[in-house]
Amino acid sequence: MSTTLDQDAIDSIFAEAKGEKRQEEVTGSGPSTAPYNFTRAGQISAQEMKTITSVSDFFAMNLKHTIGGWLRTQFNVKLVSREQLSYQEFLDRLPDPNYICSIRLEPLGALGLIEFDLALVAPIVDLLMGGVGDSAKVRDLTDIEEEILASVIQLIIRELNTAWLSIGLRFEFDHRESAGSGARMMSLAEKTLCVSFEVTMAEERGALNLCIPSVVLNQILRRLHKERDRPRRQSHENQVRLRNLIGKTTVGTVLQFTPMKLQARQLIELEPGKILRFPLSRYATSELCVGGLPIAKAHPVRSQEHRGAQIESILNERLTPKA
Hints:
Elements: H1 7-27, H2 46-71, E1 76-86, H3 87-92, E2 99-106, E3 110-116, H4 121-128, H5 143-163, E4 170-177, H6 179-183, E5 191-201, E6 204-213, H7 214-229, H8 236-247, E7 253-256, H9 264-268, E8 286-290, E9 293-303, E10 306-314
Keywords: Bacterial flagellum, Cell membrane, Cell projection, Chemotaxis, Cilium, Flagellar rotation, Flagellum, Membrane
Subcellular location: Bacterial flagellum basal body; Cell membrane
Family: Belongs to the FliM family.
């Protein structure tokens, strides 16, 4: 038998339904909902940002010693910020003129950017040419200066690989980008991770910025989750095996004089058999450098039929093994 509802019956049913819905909202018995903001998808959590901060601090410490040892001067690197920005926001922060180079992010096949402050180029070039690291007006680079800066970028990439190894990300230098080509590398709305460092040397101060696109950022987040959930404890046997393997590695080592100045005339007059007198006392100590870093003051000595270095004092306690 069919039932026909008049308008009053229909209104009554809707009124009852509305009343039940209001009752659920008051008692909280119904399902709770909240609006979702899709623009926050892929945001880094506080724990993940803490891990990125730790990796970046490790990179800054290594870069300080590596380039400082290479230039034989104080080269301070400090992490100042790590933010998620759109690519447009990252480009808007770059100075003009600037030096940006593309880097390949393997094994993901993506591209990122490194920006190095041109204010730091003049003191670096001056130090490598025998000066004291004088600064100069910021300008675009000559061909020689660009070759020197490319060597600095290679050192930066080497330390990036060391620091980010635990996450499985590998950096490879691609080439320098012009302002136009750099702006076209990614979509301007692309979300990026921007890690900024402050570099101080001599009397000059500048910035070093690393920009990683979101496609790599998402991969990093997944790896961070895996690293966080992976057991950290190693067996005693594994620790002994790792220590033995590290003990068999070889590192570049050199015993060298401290910096000195010679007259250009002395170098011009060099010929086979001629003795070049150094402005050093016979009791002056040399520097024992390992991997390009000075670690001790030492005297050259003979050990049976070999040359050796007799350690006088340790320069950097952190670089020497603990007893």
